[in-house]
Amino acid sequence: MIKFYLNTYRFAKSSILIFGLLVLFSANSQNIFAQVPQIASFSPASGPIGTEITISGSNFSSTAASNIVYFGAVRAFVTTATSTSLTVTCPSGATYLPITVTTSGLTTYSAKPFVVTSFASTTEIASNTFGTMSSKATGKRPHSIACGDFNEDGKIDLVTANYDDNTISIHTNTSSTTNISFANKIDLACGSGAFGVTTGDVTGDGMLDIAVANYFVGTVSVYKNTSVEGYISFDSKVDYYSGSGPRIVSIGDLDGDGKADLAVANDDGDNISIFRNTGTNNSLGFATKVNYSPGDAPRDVVIGDLDGDGKPELVVANFSSHNIAIYKNNCTSGNISFSYNNQYSAGPSPRCIGIGDLDNDGKPDLAVTNYDGSSVSIFINSSASGNIAFNSKSDFSIESSPYGITVGDVNGDGKLDLVVANLQAQTMSVLKNTTTNAIVSFAARVDYPAEWGTIGTVMADFNQDNRPDFAAANDFVSTVSILKNQTESTLPLDLASFKAKATYNFTSIEWVTNNETGTLNFILEHATDNINFREIARIDAAGNSIHEKKYTFRHTDPSQGSNYYRLRSVDSDGTFTYSSIEQVNFTLGTSNYSLYPNPTDKQFVNVKHESAKTPSRIKIVDVTGRTLQEVETDKNASETKVSLIGIAPGIYTVVLSNGQETLVQKLIVQ
User: Fold this and answer.
1) DSSP class of residue 66?
2) In sequence order, which residues have a C-beta less than 8 Å from that of residue 640 and are 6 or more positions away?
3) Among residues 575, 510, 623, 483, which one has the least CA distance to residue 75?
4) Which residues of the chain have pLDDT under 70?
5) CA angle at 540 for the pair 537 and 543, rounded to the nearest 5°
6) For residues 370 and 356, what is the distance between their CA atoms, to the nearest angstrom?
7) 294 preceded by a cis bond (ω within 30 of 0)
8) Do the beta carbons of residue 168 and residue 194 sit within 8 Å?
9) What sign results for the dihedral spanned by CA atoms 485, 487, 492, 495?
C-alpha cells in the first residue's frame, strides 16, 4: 500500500515525494487504477456459431473495442458494451474452454464454457464422420499439442512440444472452408525434454501466449506473443524453475487478480508448483513458486471451479498412486492458498484429465484416462457451494494405452463427448455422450486411425466450416495427424465459390451457389482487422433453386490497406453459416510513407514521408475512430517523430494527410 504523509514534510520534501509517486504511477498506470472485470453469467449457454450472447458482469469497458473477448482458441466480436454487459457474437472456431474478457490488461474467466451446437445434419458419429487423415512434420518426438489463433486471422493454429530436440513447433493455419492445411513448422528453442504445452494470455495484451514444461531441466518456458496480423512471432522464452520432472503446465487466474497464473505437475518431485503472475504493462513476471504434494508421480493438473464459489480448484492425476487429488481454492488477490480436499481412486495409472459438464446439471465433471487400464474413468460432480464432492468413478473401455483426452460437443447435439488419444493403438477414439436423466452413458466408441504414438489431441474447427475437426501429436513418428469433419451441414445450401478482388478504388465481390433450399438471404460482412466484422449489404436469395446462381456486389468504400470480406448465408429457419474469408489490399498514394519501429515498445514512432511544399498532418487514430495524437509536419522534412506517451498497447491507424492525398498505415504499440 502506498501512503501519503505530505503534512509531515516541508514543501520541498513533499514535492520530491509527489514526483516519485507520479513516476511510479506512470510506470504501472495500466493496472494500478484498473478494476478486475468479472463475468457473473452469460446467456444463452449454448447455440450455433453466430449466436448473439449477452455476458453480464462488472468492470467492463463501455467502449466495445476495449473489451477483448475469447471463446477458447479464438477472439469474438463485441457489438455493444456497457460497464456491466457485453453483447458478443460466437465466433467460428470457438472451442470448449471458458470465455475470457480482458479489459485494461486484466482478464476474467467464465465459470463454464459456451457449448457450440446445431452444426450437423445428423447427431450420429460413425466411421466416416471424419475423413482421411493428413499429417504435418513436427520437431522430434512431440509429447503434447495445443491450439489457438496466434496471429488473429480468425484461424486456429497448432503448437507441439518436442521432447527430443528441445523445441516447440508452430504450424500456421492456411485452410480454406473446403480444405484443411497448415504451413510448415516454425521451431522455437525451449528447455531440455519439452513435454507439456498450453496456450493462454498471461500478459493481458489480448494475445495468446505459450507455456511449456521442460522435463529434464525442471523449468517452465513462457513465450510472449508478438504476432501481427497474418504473421506469427514470439519473443524468446523466459524460464522459471518449477521442480523435478515437470510434465504439464496449465494456465488460469487462481487468485482473482485479473492475471493468468501457472500450475505445473512435477512428476519426479511428487508435487505441483503454482506460479502467481506478477507481470505489469503487458510484460512477463511470476513470483517464486508455491508447492503442494498431491501424491506419487503427478502427471496432469487442470483448473476449474468445481463447487461454484467463483474460485477455480486444482485437480491432479497421480500416476503411481492411481488416484486423482483435488485442492480447494482459498486464494485472495495477490495470495496463493490451496487446501487438500480429497482423493478419489481412478483406474491403473491415471494420465490425463478432461473437465466438462457431462450430465448437463451445470457442474463440471471429470474424465480421466487410465494408461495401464485401457479405460476412461468418469467422476460425476455432486458438489454444493463451498463443499466439493464427486461420486465414485464409472469406467468405460477404450483402446490400448489411452493418453490425452479432450472434452467437447463432437456432433452438435448439446452433449459433451470425449476424444481420446491412444498411444499404443495408434488411434483417436470418440465416445458419444448418450446421457439421459442424469445417468451418464456413452455409445460404443468409434476409433479413427492416427499414427504411431498418438499422445495428445485437440478438437477445433480448423477450416471455419462450423464443424469441429481433430488434431493429434504422434510421438514416435514426429508428426501431427489431422482429421477433417465431413458431416453434412444443417444449412441446405451449396456455396460453390466466394471471391473478392480490388478493382480500381472499389472491391468487386462475387459468389455462386449450385443449390438453394429455403435460403433466405446473404449478408456481406467487412472488417479491416479480420476480427470486428460489420454488415455492409443484405441480398435476398433465390430461396429454392437447383441451378447455378450468381450474385455480385460492389463495395465502394474499402479502407486503405487490408480489407476482409465474408458471406453469411442465412436459412429460412434462422440458421446460418459463413464462407471463407477473402482478403483484398488497397495501396493508395506514395510508397515513401512508412513507420518505424513498427511494432514499437517505445514512447514514439518515426513517420517517414516525402517533403512537400505545404505541411501535412499526422494523426494516431484508435479502432473507434478517435484521434489520440495529431501533429503537423515540417514542409522541408522527410521524417517526423510522433510521441506515443499516454497511448496504451494496441493496434492503431496512422493517417498522413496534406489536403489532397490521405495515406494510411497500421501501427502496433506493444
Assistant:
1) G
2) 606, 607, 609, 618, 631, 633, 634
3) 623
4) 1-33, 118-122, 488-493, 503-505, 546, 573, 587-592, 611-614, 623-625, 658-664
5) 150
6) 18
7) no
8) yes
9) positive
